[in-house]
Amino acid sequence: xxxxxxxxxxxxxxxxxxxxxxxIATAVQRGERATVVCLSFGERGESAKAWxxxxxxxxxxxxxxxxxxxxxxxxxxxxxxxxxxxxPLVESPDLVDSLVRVYRxxxxxxxxxxxxxxxxxxxxxxAARMAMSARILAQAIxxxxxGDPLGAPPVFSFEPHQPEMSGFHPxxxxxxxxxxxxxxxxxxxxxxxxxxxxxxxxxxxxxxxQLRRNAGPNLGLPHDTKAxxxxxxxxxxxxxxx
Amino acid sequence: xxxxxxxxxxxxxxxxxxxxxxxIATAVQRGERATVVCLSFGERGESAKAWxxxxxxxxxxxxxxxxxxxxxxxxxxxxxxxxxxxxPLVESPDLVDSLVRVYRxxxxxxxxxxxxxxxxxxxxxxAARMAMSARILAQAIxxxxxGDPLGAPPVFSFEPHQPEMSGFHPxxxxxxxxxxxxxxxxxxxxxxxxxxxxxxxxxxxxxxxQLRRNAGPNLGLPHDTKAxxxxxxxxxxxxxxx
Amino acid sequence: xxxxxxxxxxxxxxxxxxxxxxxIATAVQRGERATVVCLSFGERGESAKAWxxxxxxxxxxxxxxxxxxxxxxxxxxxxxxxxxxxxPLVESPDLVDSLVRVYRxxxxxxxxxxxxxxxxxxxxxxAARMAMSARILAQAIxxxxxGDPLGAPPVFSFEPHQPEMSGFHPxxxxxxxxxxxxxxxxxxxxxxxxxxxxxxxxxxxxxxxQLRRNAGPNLGLPHDTKAxxxxxxxxxxxxxxx
Amino acid sequence: xxxxxxxxxxxxxxxxxxxxxxxIATAVQRGERATVVCLSFGERGESAKAWxxxxxxxxxxxxxxxxxxxxxxxxxxxxxxxxxxxxPLVESPDLVDSLVRVYRxxxxxxxxxxxxxxxxxxxxxxAARMAMSARILAQAIxxxxxGDPLGAPPVFSFEPHQPEMSGFHPxxxxxxxxxxxxxxxxxxxxxxxxxxxxxxxxxxxxxxxQLRRNAGPNLGLPHDTKAxxxxxxxxxxxxxxx
Amino acid sequence: xxxxxxxxxxxxxxxxxxxxxxxIATAVQRGERATVVCLSFGERGESAKAWxxxxxxxxxxxxxxxxxxxxxxxxxxxxxxxxxxxxPLVESPDLVDSLVRVYRxxxxxxxxxxxxxxxxxxxxxxAARMAMSARILAQAIxxxxxGDPLGAPPVFSFEPHQPEMSGFHPxxxxxxxxxxxxxxxxxxxxxxxxxxxxxxxxxxxxxxxQLRRNAGPNLGLPHDTKAxxxxxxxxxxxxxxx
Amino acid sequence: xxxxxxxxxxxxxxxxxxxxxxxIATAVQRGERATVVCLSFGERGESAKAWxxxxxxxxxxxxxxxxxxxxxxxxxxxxxxxxxxxxPLVESPDLVDSLVRVYRxxxxxxxxxxxxxxxxxxxxxxAARMAMSARILAQAIxxxxxGDPLGAPPVFSFEPHQPEMSGFHPxxxxxxxxxxxxxxxxxxxxxxxxxxxxxxxxxxxxxxxQLRRNAGPNLGLPHDTKAxxxxxxxxxxxxxxx
Lengths: 242, 242, 242, 242, 242, 242
Known about the structure:
Chain A has 242 residues and is an alpha/beta fold. Chain A contains 7 helices and 8 strands. Chain A binds chain B through residues 6, 23, 26-27, 30, 109-110, 112, 149-154, 156, 170-175, 178, 210-211, 213-219, 229-230, 232, 234-242, and chain B through 6, 23, 26-27, 30, 109-110, 112, 149-154, 156, 170-175, 178, 210-211, 213-219, 229-230, 232, 234-242.
C-alpha cells in the first residue's frame, strides 16, 4: 500500500468508466487508493434509454447509481455520489465546498476530471471548473473545512467524446494494457450502453497505436497495447526528462 | 552507466549552457551520456564584444569554440561543432543530413533544442526545425545513413530569452538543484558575458519557485530549489500519471 | 413551405437586424420559417439617444419593441421578447429554461446567435452561452419541458462589431444579395441609428467582395454581391465537399 | 458527367487511400472526375517492410507505384506520379511549377491535401505548402503556364495520423457510407500494411459516430455510418446556412 | 495636476503592490491620480503565515488592511476596500454594481486588473471579469448609477505569478525605473512576505533587460532599468506608430 | 525635421499605398522620413488587367513602377525597387542581404510590412519573413554590411485583404484623418484599380468607427475619423500606459 491517492471528479455516473477506467484500474493494481466523485447520476442527460422505457426519475437515479457502484467495485475504487442534479449541473458555492471537503478528506496525489470546454455537454466543463476551483480552495489554510491544507496534486483532463472540438490536447498517453481487462469488465457493468463498449475498446486500441508510435519501436511494446489520453493542467514537475 | 543518452542541438556555441546546462549536468551526474551539437559558433550574431574589440572572424570562432569546449567539459558532455555559419544559420539538406548522422551515431533517448519560434533570433527556430526534421529522417530504415534507425526519443524545447514572445509553454519544470553548481561553473567559462551569469542564476531561482509551487508544499523541496523549464513536442508516454 | 426552421437568439432588440438580417430574409424567401428571440430590448445599453432625450425606461422598452417588431415583419420572421433586462443581461437557470422551451416549440434546423466572446459588450456572450446551453438541454429526453427532444441543429455566430477582437473567424460567407433590399428596409425600421445603416451596408459589400474572392471568378457572381459572415460552432455534416 | 473535378495532392503513394479514399469514391460515384498526384512513392519513409526484406530502391518504387495504381483504379481516380523523392520531400520552385500545371490542366473544383503541420512527418506539411502555393500561382493570369487561370476551388486537409498533435480541427464530417466498400477494397490494394486496414476502418466508424452526433437523430442515418473528417482552409461560400 | 486617473482593481490586498506598484508610482510622480480597489483583503487565501500563527479572521483582515493602506500611502494612491471575501471571491451583480460606481466616481483614463485566466488562483480571474463587466456597464447612459457615463479607458492586465500558464502575453513593457525605489518601499510594507521582495525585485530586473532588448541599444537606457509587463485588452489608439 | 525614419517593406508595387498610405502620409506630415521598398512590381500576380490587355512583362513592370513612383511622390516617400520577381516571390539569402543593407542605410525607427500568414497570397508572408530576418541580421555588429548596427525598431504588420483569415489582430488603430486626403490622392495614382479606391476608403471609415469606439466619446474625435489597423510584432516599450 502506497500513499498515492487518485481522485476522479466526474459529472455523471458513467464518465469515470469510459474515460478513466484504465487509469483507475492500473493505479489500484499498483496498490494506490482511488476515489470517484459523481456529481450527478446523469439521470436526465445520459439515460435516454431508460426515459424511453418510461422509468421514473427516481428509478433512473437508482439504476445509474447501481451501475456506477458495480463498475467502481470492479475497478477497485471508492465511489461517492453528490446527487447535485444534471442537465444542467448547476455550479454553486455549496457544491464546490463539498468538493473541498472531499479533497481535504482524500488528500489526492493526482486528480482526474473533464475538460474545461465541451460544446456537446455543458455539465462536463461545469464539473471541471468546480474541480479546479475546489482544489485551489482546499490548498488554503484559511479555508474553513476539516483536514489539512491540500498540496498541489497534478490535474489531468480525461478524453472527451469529440476531442478536437473540446480543445483536448493529448499531453500524456497512458499505457493501460495491464488494466484493460478490468476496464472492459467495468464497462460491461453499464448495461444500457453496449454500443459504447466497442467504441471505447476501439479508442483504447487507437490511442495504443499512438502510444507505440510516440514511444518508439525500441521499447518492445506489444501490438495490442491499450492507452488512454490525458491533458495536463499544470507543468510536470520532475528531476529527469523522459 | 545507463543506456540513456541526451542529445542537445544548439544554434550557437553558448546556448546549451544558458538554457540546458542544468539538464545536462544532472543527466551526467546520473551516469547518462550527453552530446552537444553546435551548428555554429555564434561568431557573427552572439559575439558583439569580440567584434567591438576588433577581433577577426577566425579569432572569434576559435574563442567561442574554446569557451564551449570548456563549458561542455565542466558539464561532462561531448561537444561537436558543425561550423555551418550563423546570422543567418541557413537550413540545407546537407546540414540536416549531418544531423541525421549524429542521431544515428548517438542513439539519443532524449533530445533538447530551441523553440520553433523566436522573433528575436532567426537561427534558433532554424536549428529547431532542422533538429526536428533530422530526427524524423533518422527514424526511417530507408534513409541512407550509417547506423540503425532511430527510435522515437522525446523532444523538448529549452527556454528562449523572451518566452512569452516565442510561444514557449513550460510543460516541464526540471529540478536542477543537484546540478546547479556545475551549471554555474560552466556559465563562468563563457567569460565575455558576465551579465548573463546573474541573469540565468535569477531565472533558475524563479523557475525553482514555480517548481515548488507546482510540486506542492508536501514534497519538502528546499527554498533554494533551482529549475529549468522545457516544452514538449510530443505526448509523454508513461504507465502512471504524476 | 419546407420544414426548415431558423432560430435567432439575440441579446438586444436590434442585433438580429444588423447582424443576421440577410440570413433571415433569404431563408424566408425560400419558404423557411424564422423565429427571433430578443432576450432584452437593449433598453439600457443600446438606446443612448433615447436616454439623452429623457425618455423613461418603459418608453424606451416600448420604442425598441416597436422597432424590432417592424423589422421582423419586414424580414418575415416571428419575434418573441423575453424582457430579461440588459446591461447586464444576467444568466439564470430560468432564462435558460425559457430558451429550452423555445427550442422545443420551434424545432429549429439552424440556430444563429452571438459570439462567445465580445470585450465590448458582456450581454452578447451571455446570450450566446445561454443559447448554447439551452440547445444541449433541449436535446435530452429527460429534460422536463413540453415537446419532443431537439435534434442537433448547427449553430452559427453572426458577426460582432469588432470581429478580430471577439475571436470571430468567418467560417461561412453567406450570399445575401437576393435578400439585401429587404435587409435594408428592415434596418431602416431602426430609426434612431441612421449611421448604422451605412455602416452595415458597407460591411455587406466588404463581405461580398471577400465572398467573390473565395468563390472564384468562374461563378459569375455580380460585382455588387452582398454577404454576411458567420462562424460555425460544430463541424459541418455533408455528403459532398464544396 | 458533371464538371466537378477533385484534385488530391499527396506526399506519398498511399496517403490518398487511407485519408481520402471515401471522399474520392463517393465523388466518382456521383460522376465527378478525380485526379490524384503523388509527389513521391513513399519509397524511403513509408516502406519499412520492403526495406527490411532487402529490396532495392527501384524495386520499392515500382512496388509502391503498382499499389497506388491499383488503389486509384478501384477508386475510379486518375493518378499521376511526380517522383520527387521522399524523406525528405524537398520543396522547390520546379516542383511547385509542376503542380501549377496540374491545376491548370485539371481545373479542380475541390482540392484535398495534407495538413500544414505534422510533427511526425515533414513530407506531409511540405506537400501541403506546395499544394497551397501552386493553387495561388495557378490563379494568376500572369503566371506562365499553359491553360486558363484557375478559379478559387476550396481546399481541405484530410486527417493526419495524430490529429490533435497536427493542429487538425475537423470542420467537415463527410458521409462516406456509400463509398466505404470501395474504400475498403482500395485499402486492400496496399498489401504490405494489413494492420492499417483495421485502423482506418475503425477510424471511419469513429468519425461516423461523431457525424451522427453532429447531424442529430432526426436524420435517420444508419448506425454503421462511415465518415472522413476534413479541415477547411478558406471560408465556405454558400447561399444557405446548414 | 493632470486629469489623468488610474484605477487599479485587485482581488486581494497585496496584488496591486507586487504587480503594478511601479506603474502606480510613476503615474503619481507625473501628477496623476491613482485609485486602488481591493475586492477582498486576501484574508483566507493569501495570509498563510497569519493563519499558522493562530490569528483570527478579523485580526487577519485588519492586518492586511493596514499593510495595504501603508503601501498605498507610499505609492501615493487612494485605496478602497470592498470586503467581498476571498477564497472564493464570489462574483455577483451587487459587487459589479459597486465597481460601476467606482468607475463613475473616479473617471479613470486607464484601468489595471488581473488576467482573465489564472489556474493557480480563481479569485484573480473573477476580479478581472468583474472589472471588465463593470467598465462596460459604466459606459451606458442607461445604467442607473450616479455620475456621467464612462469613456473607453484602456484596460491592462498586470503580470500574474506564472505568466505562461495564465495566457499572459506581454504587450507592453513599462519603464518603472523612476518609480522603483518607491515600489520597493511599498513592498516592504507587506512585512509578512519578505521572500516576495526579492522575487519581484528580480522580476523587475528581468523585465528591464527585456525592455532594453526591445527598445534597442540606441536609446541609452541604463543597465539597471526596471520594468513591469502588461497585456492590453483593447487596441491601442494613437496618431503615431512607435 | 526629426530623426524619425519609417521603413515600409512591401511585396508588390501597390501594397504600401492601400495598406499603409495613411501611416506614411501622416509621418511625412510630421517631418519624418519614409522609405518604401518594393520587392517586386507585382507584375505577374497583381496586374491582371494589363495581362488581359496583352501587355508584355516589361511593359507591365514599367507600368507598375510608374504608378508606384507617382504614389510614393504624393505620399512624400522615397521608393526603391528590388525587382526580385513575384508569383512567386522567392526567398533567398541575397534578397535578405539586400534588405539588411537597406536597414543599415536608412536606420529606421519604425518598420511596416505584411503579415506572416496570408492564405490568399504567398508573396506577402515571404516578404514579411524576409523583412523580419533582415532586421535581426542588421542588428548584429558581426554581420558584414556597410553602416552601423541597427537598433530595435518596432515592427508592425499592416492589414491584409482578409484579416481574420490571415491571423491579423489589430493591436493598434492609427488615426490617419490628417493624411487621408493624401492617401486618397496616392490611391488614385493606381489607375488600373478604381474599385479598390472605394474599398479602401470604406475600410478607413470602418476602422475609424472602431478607433472612436476604442478611444471613447470623451476625446471629441470627428465622425469622419479615418484609421488604419496594425499588428505589433514586439512588445511596446513606453514609460506610461495609455
